[in-house]
Structures are given as structure tokens and as C-alpha cells.
Design goal:
Blueprint: H1 2-17, H2 37-42, H3 47-74, H4 77-93, H5 97-111, H6 117-141
Helix pairs in contact: 3-4, 3-6, 4-5, 5-6
């Protein structure tokens, strides 16, 4: 019962406040959630390098997301800020610019130690969108 109430609250907040965010982001899009332009530029088109970065992202992201969730649960603002800040640059590297915007907002909340419902929602939204992005990258690159 509590989970249903939380899900309704998250969905209502997402629908009202974050209209641009779809809970299904990534899987049903014509365009993938990532943009590899920057990664291709810095690799000079070396596809092995691109694949190694994407493979590392797919491997490391679930672990990092779990660390972010745990730090938020503990309200360990210093660790959470460090993790979110570190993750932001990774998202830019693999061209997950929409998710990067959410992570930047989360980083601001954490830096200011804002413990609000919106902070928790951002943690959940980032987590979900990254999980979807990881699945899309795995599928698109056979990782």
C-alpha cells in the first residue's frame, strides 16, 4: 500500500512538475537517449575506444547508482555530493545530456543540503533514467 502511494506521488510529481521527463525515456524513442558526438570527437573516431568507454559505463553505472541511493538514504551529503559530481562528467562523456541536467539539479540540492521530496524524486528519476540508458546502450552496442 505504501509503495503504491509513493509511486502515485512520484508519477503525479513527474507528470505535473517534470513534464519533459517520461518514465519510459529511452526504450521507445526513435532517437537514442545518448549522443556520442563528443566521445567520437575526443577518440578521433576510434570505435574501439568508444566501445571501451561505453562498456565501462555499462559496468560502473549500476554500482554508482546504488552508492548514490545509499548515500541519500543515510543523508551523507558530503559523499552524495562527491558521487553526483563525479557522475555528472561521465554522463557528458557518453552524451546523456538530458540526464546530466537532472544530475546537475540534484547536485545543487545536495550542495545546499536540501532534504526535500524533490531531492528524493530526483534521486529516483536519475536512477530510473540511467537504468534505462544502460539497457539501451547494452542493446544498441551488444554489450
Amino acid at each position: 500500500m505504501r509503495n503504491q502511494k509513493v509511486n502515485r506521488t512520484i508519477n503525479r510529481t513527474i507528470n505535473n512538475k517534470y513534464r519533459e521527463i517520461s518514465i519510459d525515456d529511452g526504450m521507445n524513442q526513435v532517437n537514442p537517449p545518448y549522443n556520442l558526438t563528443y566521445l567520437n570527437e575526443i577518440s578521433s573516431g576510434d570505435q574501439q575506444f568508444v566501445l571501451s568507454i561505453l562498456s565501462q559505463f555499462v559496468k560502473d553505472t549500476p554500482v554508482l547508482l546504488n552508492e548514490i541511493r545509499e548515500a541519500y538514504k543515510k543523508r551523507d551529503w558530503a559523499d552524495l555530493h562527491f558521487l553526483v559530481h563525479k557522475f555528472a562528467s561521465t554522463l557528458l562523456l557518453v552524451g546523456l545530456n538530458d540526464i546530466h541536467e537532472e544530475v546537475s539539479r540534484l547536485e545543487n540540492f545536495v550542495k545546499n543540503r536540501t532534504d526535500s521530496m524533490e531531492t528524493g524524486l530526483l534521486v529516483e528519476i536519475v536512477n530510473h533514467r540511467c537504468e534505462v540508458a544502460v539497457q539501451v546502450i547494452k542493446q544498441d552496442f551488444n554489450l
